[in-house]
Amino acid sequence: MGRLFVLRRSRTTVEAVVTCSHAKAMMIGVDGFSRWSGALGLCALIAMVRPSAADPRAVVELFTSQGCSSCPPADRIIGELARDPSIIALSMPIDYWDYLGWKDTLADSRFSARQKAYSQMRGDRDVYTPQVIVNGQTHLVGSNRVGIDGAIKSTDQIPGTMTVPVRMAVNGKEIKVSVAAAPPGERVAQGEVWICSVSKAVPIAIARGENRGREVVYHNVVRNLLKVGDWNGAAGSWSVPLENIAHDGIDAAAVYVQDGNRDRPGAMLGAAFTSLH
User: What whole-number distance in Å separates Cα of residue 14 and Cα of residue 12?
Assistant: First the structure.
């Protein structure tokens, strides 16, 4: 149908090298989300200056659907953005268009809930596909590449946005996640640390619905979300078992630190992305 769907119901920085002693941690389920809960021990922080270009400047989330004929152009744009090392582009397929004739094979109701939470925080209740959220703050149509580039530049100027260095690395059978302290002079934020299991490229042959007969490649598809822990402005470090992240079809991981919480998501404070193979 080629239409836009809308639901209305409803910089030089400081790098931190952190070493921590950990107590035992365990995986628990919280309201349909997997949660990685670990105790932090005493942390030692060593700072050194490095170029800001080493850190990503934006997290771009696309809420998309295989059942939406307006989405393929936005899906292609996410593929283009995914090739830019300064941008962490993520596809989060939603499930509320499944009734249109094709059940989205990548959809997750948690992404629909996340999109709705963003709209409630903004107060506009605008929930549609393809919708892009840039750095947790600005939303726009996902096929508007010029608008996305502009939103990346404008949100990059907002104090506190993407200023916290985040590091992630595979170490044996674990993924090490380190989040630095809030930069000097910035308010101490309260946020959460999440890790995403990612499939870099997933081709889907769509047999029914508005995109019948098309094959669409979805890029940086989030396949699972795990809460790593809470962040209060101080440096922290966690270890996540690789077996909780890497399953069949998973070849990358993304970590983001976001102001607020799952139900009230705010600005992106920092993020990292790494390949697993």
Answer: 7
Asked if 105 and 73 touch (Cβ cutoff 8 Å), the reply is no
Q: Can you list the positions of beta strands (E) in 100-206? A: 127-129, 131-134, 138-141, 166-171, 174-179, 191-205
What's phi and psi for 124, nearest 5 deg? Answer: -105, -15
For CA atoms 153, 235, 170, 47, the dihedral sign is positive
8 Å CB contact between 246 and 276: yes
Non-local (6+) Cβ contacts of 220 within 8 A are: 78, 82, 88, 89, 90, 91, 198, 199, 200, 252, 254
Q: According to DSSP H, which parts of 170-256 are helical?
A: none
Tens digit of each residue's pLDDT (9 = 90 or more) over 5-52: 444 333 333 333 333 333 333 333 333 444 443 333 323 322 333 333
Which residues, other chains included, contact 252 with Cβ-Cβ below 8 Å and sequence gap of 6+? Answer: 198, 199, 200, 220, 273, 274, 275, 276
pTM score of the predicted model: 0.81
Write down the mean pLDDT value for the chain: 84
Query: What separation in angstroms does the CA of 268 have from each of 101, 180, 193, 212, 230?
Result: 35, 14, 10, 36, 14
First-to-last C-alpha distance (Å) of the chain: 39
Domain boundaries, the chain: 13-275
Integer Cα distance of 138 and 143 in angstroms: 14
Q: Which residue has the higher pLDDT, 18 or 173?
A: 173
